[in-house]
Amino acid sequence: MSIDSRPPTDPASTLDVRFRAAIHAVSSLDADPQIRPSTNPAFGDYQANAAMSLAKVTKGNPRELANALAACVDLTGIAEPAVIAGPGFLNIRLESAFIVAMLSAMDNATLGIEPTKETHAAVVDLCGVNVAKQMHVGHLRATIIGDTIARVFERLGRKVWRENHLGDWGLPIAMTLAALRRSHVDLDQLSLTHLNDAYRRAQLEGRHDDAGLAAARATDAGPHRLFELLAQEESAGEAIKDAKSTLLRLQGGDTEVVAAWQKIIDCTMREVYDSTSTLNAKVTAEHNRGESFFRDRLAPVVDAFLQAGFAKEDKGAIIVPFADRERPLLIRKSDGGFLYATTDLAALRFRTHDLDGSRVIYVVDARQRDHFKDVFDAAALIGWDRTKDGNKSEITHLGFGTVLGKDKRPLKTRSGENFTLKDLLDEAMERGVAEVTRRAEDPHAPTHGMPTADLTRIGRAVGIAAIKYADLSNDLTKDYVFDLDRMVAFEGDTGPYLQYAHARIANILAKSKDSASEIAATPHAVAEPAERALALHLLRYPQMVQDVARTLETNRIGAYLRTLAECFNAFYQSCPVLKSEDTTLRRARLRLCALARHVLQDGLSLYGIDAPERM
RNA sequence: GUCCCGGUAGCUCAGUUGGAUAGAGCAGCGGCCUUCUAAGCCGCAGGUCGAUGGUUCGAAUCCAUCCCGGGACGCCA
After folding, report:
1. Domains in chain A, please, with CATH?
2. Å from A160 (CA) to B52 (C1')?
3. pLDDT grade, residue A417 (50/70/90)?
4. What pTM did the predictor assign?
5. What is the DSSP string of A293-308?
6. Are A27 and A133 in contact (CB under 8 A)?
7. What is the DSSP letter of A524?
8. Is A41 a residue whose pLDDT tops 50?
């Protein structure tokens, strides 16, 4: 699928080529040699697992085939002769000289990552805030997961569009606007608290919706939906008329209403940018492209589907039916209004065609899975899943799990009293600063005597790292229980653990009397097992980044970095660096330290986590 | 009712896409600092990988059927 080749500095790439040739020579097949890192260091560094599955195809004996491959494969200058084990595993131990050569090849600014050959853009839908609503912990996920995905593509040299698809248009906003106007709030003194109150009040005042109720009954919709609609019907009233007239004025370009609308957007976004900046997520004003941007493209969407014959009228509404399922996609309401599906179709077309995205990724709550399936399928019907030059785009809904409360029920904003994102970030930073300050009191601590401003900066970075790592290092698709104490833990498998490893390395390098040029001029060396293990893991970095771009599994970054930190800690334990009397050995170890620090910092940057020099 | 997602140690989770003896962290117990940073390292203990059957050299991973939990299901986003 990927047009990019395997990283040249990864030993698995070379082994793949050599074993592929051997398989071809032995069986005249072009098969995956199944090169994997060894599960146990006692077996060697890598293993080739192809013999077993290949024997199935050739109807041969797996051990004989493994024997033939071992005899045939050319590992000159790479590894010792392959050793057969078990049912047909081929165990491979690399030559140290080869590891050193690969290490030297990746020890530069690129860290072995070659720029992608893909010239089309990647588009990442992230953040997705609603105007007039405060960010809650769910927005944390949509923001930092999306930011990390974007950073990975950027790291591979790809053009990336971060799209913050704001909910800034339509009836909900009009309701809030109307509620604000009724309560005579001075819009120039507007605070997010005012906005939240108005939004909640507007929601409570409800929506009158008997067409929906009838449809829900007729189509045997779930009880949840019916309940909601019934609740709304009871509280319908004057508010809805006011909101609808406000919406009409907004859509008509009424200067007064548009000015008010702009003010509530500005007010909302001030705090959003505050939070994204704190999170070190690259989401700013330039990434805004909300629903209002697409308002003039909605009618053409419906027309296009009708003209192409993919849409039809049903009970006064316009729907796109699908061949393989009952549920259609509704793109125009019976009252002529458009829906979020309509906006999403317009946005998808814009992203593939106008932004030239051959990869479009929606970082949105997993509960919208069915909705996106429908939107993507509808787009495919009409051919909107293609870039300008007609290339098929890969469109993915990266649905992340719901954030649950301690009762394992979803945290709902309407309950009102749950943690806002701002509360969470403030708490994390406060704890981080307290911890860093406390540790700095130890006279032996490298942070001892540092100015308060520096300790605060480090403490905040530690707190934010804890939050981000806790989220990004788990399987994105799973729900998780929101537990503040666990999220801001600083020990064990945490963000600060990685920062600590980085600070340790940085401290060694800072204390070294050897100059950077002296270190860089010294050859790498991997004599000790801990050095070797560290080196082998460093060499896997470029492939890991490629894997994340392919699978969008951000937890692979965390797992890689944790293992890297573990490898370094083992090295730190058993291989003295500055205490080494031998100049060549000391400098070789310093060079390994420098490379490890570089990779750790680079990897943390994919998560948007700062790596302080001291902590 | 239809469809989707999940179930791994007491708790929270990994498991490199079918590989060798299922791994971490927290919690528990026991070790290691006159320090290249103990936010660390080493050890002990902890498992019917929801259940049953199947596919094969080999299954936590793939298939089938159940059980349990969660979610979505046309005029909200």
Report:
1. 11-94 (3.30.1360.70), 171-397 (3.40.50.620), 421-606 (1.10.730.10)
2. 49
3. low
4. 0.94
5. GGGGGHHHHHHHHHHT
6. no
7. P
8. yes
Tokens of A611: 């790596």
Residue A299: closest CA among A281, A313, A324, A318: A318
- Among the listed residues A239, A593, A203, the one whose alpha carbon sits nearest the alpha carbon of residue A412: A203
- Give, in degrees to the nearest 5, the angle at Cα A38 between A37 and A42: 150
Give counts: helices (H), strands (E), chain A: 23, 13
Residue type present at position A109: A
Residue A473 pLDDT class (50, 70, 90 cuts): very high
Q: Tokens representing A64?
A: 């004989």
- Residue A226's nearest nucleotide, by CA–C1', is B73
Q: Are A527 and A592 in contact (CB under 8 A)?
A: no
Q: How far apart are CA A530 and CA A279, in angstroms?
A: 35
Residue A523, C-beta contacts closer than 8 angstroms, at least 6 positions apart: A100, A104, A588
Query: Tens digits of per-residue pLDDT, A46-62?
Result: 999 999 999 988 888 99
Quick one: how far is CA A466 from the chain centroid? 16
Residues 293-312 of A with CB under 7 A from strand B: none
Q: With a 7 Å cutoff on the CB, does A414 touch strand B?
A: no
Q: Which nucleotide is nearest to A43 (CA to C1')?
A: B20
Q: Which of residues 182-221 of A touch strand B (CB under 7 A)?
A: 207, 209, 211-212, 215-216, 219-221
**Alpha-carbon distances of A248 from A173, A251, A257, A265, A297, rounded to whole Å:** 12, 5, 10, 18, 17
- CB-facing half-sphere around the CA of A126: CA atoms within 13 A: 24
Chain A 107-146, CB < 7 Å to strand B: 130
Closest to A596 measured CA to CA, from A588, A608, A606, A585: A588
* Inter-residue contact A38 to A46 (CB < 8 Å): yes
Count of beta carbons in the 10 Å neighbourhood of residue A225: 15
Q: Which residues is A361 bridged to in the sheet?
A: A124, A396
* Strand B-contacting residues in A 352-381, CB cut-off 7 angstroms: 366-371
Separation between the CA of A250 and the C1’ of B10 (whole angstroms): 57
Instruction: Tell me which DSSP letter residue A554 carries.
Output: T
Tokens of A418: 């749950």
A112: left (phi over 0), alpha (psi -120 to 50) or beta: left
Predicted confidence (pLDDT) per residue in A360-375, tens digit:
999 999 999 999 999 9
Distance of CA A261 to the CA centre of its chain: 31
ipTM here? 0.96
A450 touches strand B (CB under 7 A): no
What's the mean pLDDT when you consider all of chain A? 90
The residue type at A386: R
| Phi, psi values for residue A402, rounded to 5° | -80, 145
* Token output for A345: 């179709």
Task: Please tell me whether any atom of strand B lies within 7 Å of the Cβ of A40.
Answer: yes
